[in-house]
Amino acid sequence: MSPESSDSPDQPRFRRRDFLKIPILAVAAYSVAKIASRLTVGAGLGASKSAVHLSDRQCETIRAASGLIVGPEGASALAAGEWDPVQYADDLLGAMSPGQRRMAGVGLYLFEEWTVGLVGFTDKSADVQQNWLRSWATSENGVKASVWGLLHAIASASYSSSEVGWRQMKYPGPCRSDVGYAGRNPGQSQPVHWHTDVP
Amino acid sequence: MTKRFKAVVVGSGAGGAPAARELARQWGDGVAIIEAGRDYAPGDLTQLERDMVPRLYVGAGTQGTEDGHVGILQGQAVGGSTLVNDAICFRPPPEIVDRWRQYGVELDFAELESLADEVEQAMGVVQIPKSQINKANYLVGLGAARLGWHGERLRHNSPGCVECGFRHVGCTYGVKRSTNLSFIPDAVAAGAHLLTETTVRSLSHSGDGWIVETSAGQIRSDVVVLAAGIVQTPAILLRSGINAGNGLQFHVQSVAWGDFGSPVDGFNGIPMSYGVMEFADVYGRRGPGYIMEGVGVQPMAFSVQPPGQGAFKSEILSRYRYLSGVLCLVRARGRGSVRLDRNGDPVISYDLDPFDAQRVGHFYNSAAELYFAAGARRVLLPHRRIGWLHNLPGSMDIRPGLQYLYTAHPFGGACRGTVTDSDGQVVGQKNLWVLDASGFPEALGVNPQVTIAAMSIKGARQILGN
Prior knowledge:
- The structure holds 2 protein chains of 2 kinds.
- Chain A is mostly helical.
- Helices cover about 55% and strands about 0% of the residues of chain A.
- Chain A contains 8 helices and no strands.
- Chain B has helices spanning about 15-25, 50-55, 95-100, 110-125, 135-145, 185-190, 230-240, 300-305, 310-320, 355-375, 450-465, and strands at about 5-10, 30-35, 70, 125, 150-155, 155, 195, 200-205, 210-215, 215-225, 245-260, 275, 290-295, 325-330, 335-340, 345-350, 380, 405, 410, 430-435.
- Chain B is globular and about 65 Å long.
- In chain B, helix 1 (about 15-25) runs parallel beside helix 6 (about 185-190) and helix 4 (about 110-125) crosses helix 11.
């Protein structure tokens, strides 16, 4: 009979290994609470007023990652409120099938929380965030690569379809003048001096 | 009250619209066309990618394989993918006669050629004149010419194109003769009913005919033609208890860019106008099996493709005006499948075949060689581990997730020779036909809209003959 088995079942007491469980249980409880509040896209406390499918935390994650992805000009414009990837991301999620939307929610959660020391992405320093993003971009892990792909698509598409993005790209906008922009004439291709060898 | 028709055609793209026209010419208002998307007038197409991509593409352009490694671009509107494609038209490649025979499918190529003539007449297909080749595409031709590679001006169904550059979000000038402006108006003029924003859930037998379960209620029809695309056509069959979904194939596509010293402005002019056939395995060529085509460089469609972040990404965006893009269209060997999730929604599985990955790597090298020959200072690939190239990349790590791959040309899922007979009638299911690219037993090797439409007309005439 082991020494432990001699304890009376009516008098439970903590043993050393029980104490070891406390931080593990605490972390688990913390994680479960976070998962419950953030895993379901747009559900629970803190859902953004403007976003339908994203929580506030997910909006913060998307803003932070987008600024880093598109680079300094885009980041400055984001800080100045000249473009915002969140509405685009929310619309995108709205167009996804329920299954896709669920996966996107899980992906955004993992990106924010899959970290050592329980410091979420948005709470890290800019340098650490940049490295964190880069490690996901080039990861062998298919989930990480896919999540980075989603964030990259949100940042790139929303920025390059904004006027501030157009300014950086020196894109003159659509030809139509009745859709809120100056318009330009079609058929204004750069001149081509056709080489005789080109059929 | 349940509506009743002689024929219901599900889908209004390159597969559905020609069949609908043929059937309507005989059966008039006994024909209904069911389309999941809206019917957009040219004036509704604003040229703003932010507004139009979510409206015109399935899943707002986010549709892809379940692992997220290959994007699948499909139009969702009257006109289907012909509304948002780059209007490129190729004749049916003669090689498909022997290739399809391996699957038990017999084709009369002379008949197919004749049907392709009809399609081209209806869609106004012409070769793009030299005067309409923009600089971005010309540089593709120049590089090919300097390397002695076979290049050619492509053919398109936009006679009188005004060269605005916005084909991927529909033609606001009403010049591109997509099926919503060619076959569908003919079908409607002949009496066909066009039911838009209506989805089909499943089919069930009703005597010799069918009950079609739609989002707008039940419809009875003597004949049903499925042409809802390679995702929804197999999904409808599966939800109806009919075995389908296997044999999915893609043209695996990826884009490389050359960075030139002076502005190229690839957003201007006809987006896709020059092709390089050097590496094709169609029309008698014996290459590794891909064609190259110059692409349009519209800001949003462009920006999502080259990876990278921070200063590197910012520099790419700043070089936007100086880039010419060329895509590959790999006639892929790998196969995938469409199955249903627990809600009955389609899920697409696809693994990149090693041989196909090898050919994507071959293309990246070819594209770099072509652009350096044309005078590019450097070359950019959509690869997460490769920056600007100043030399040929050589051997490369091509694996799922490392590079941006997509397809605008999926095939199979309800293949002739297995799910249907050679003409497209579903085996063991009277009066049920598949007349879109989901019936193709393998990837075609060239832009498929003319071949799909020709096969659709053939199938429709078979229905009328029956």
